[in-house]
Prior knowledge:
This protein is an alpha/beta fold and 215 residues long. The chain contains seven helices and eleven strands.
Amino acid sequence: MSDEPRFSYSSAIFECQTVDAAKQIILTAGSIEEVEAHWREDTPVLAAQLRQHLKLESEHRVMDFGCGIGRLAKPLVEVPGCHVVGVDISASMRRMAVDYVGSSRFSVAAPDEIFPRRADDPGFDAAYALLVIQHCQDPEKELQRISDSLKPTRHFVLVNSTRRWLPTDKGWASDSIDVLQLASRILRREGMFQPPRASTPGGAEAHYGAVFTRR
Length: 215
């Protein structure tokens, strides 16, 4: 019997050419009308939750892990003096994010450009990953890199589906990894909260918000 995997991880699904296409990929909510409604109604709620749980202050440097086109970075750079660095594997979404956010206090980077943390980098004051870790090929690696990039005791917010959604050459797949349990081993869990509704490639799915600090 062959031990070859049944599928190969593929991030190609996250490459797109227009903002509308990017929004549909990010929210997986069906029609563009549904996507726009989620984007318009839920984004301010999520932004307020992030401000609260990340304890954002003036001059904080924040990592948006899996930033997409900057859905949450756009309202967060409105915090006086706050700088947001969007990290994403999708080159096309990083390019669109710069225009969408439209702020000198926002920049983008590919993961390999920001990890591992340089010796002269003081670290981030806060970080968040919204409906992103569920798609990562190696969530333990990504969570550890986020943790290592934070200043001691600073906050990380994770919003995630209870199920894994891996992009592959044969469509969406799942595995048995419990991201919340994994994150709780790497960082110190401080609490839970309920974010706005969310969709996944499979439709409506249970999801959660969790607040952590670097150990």
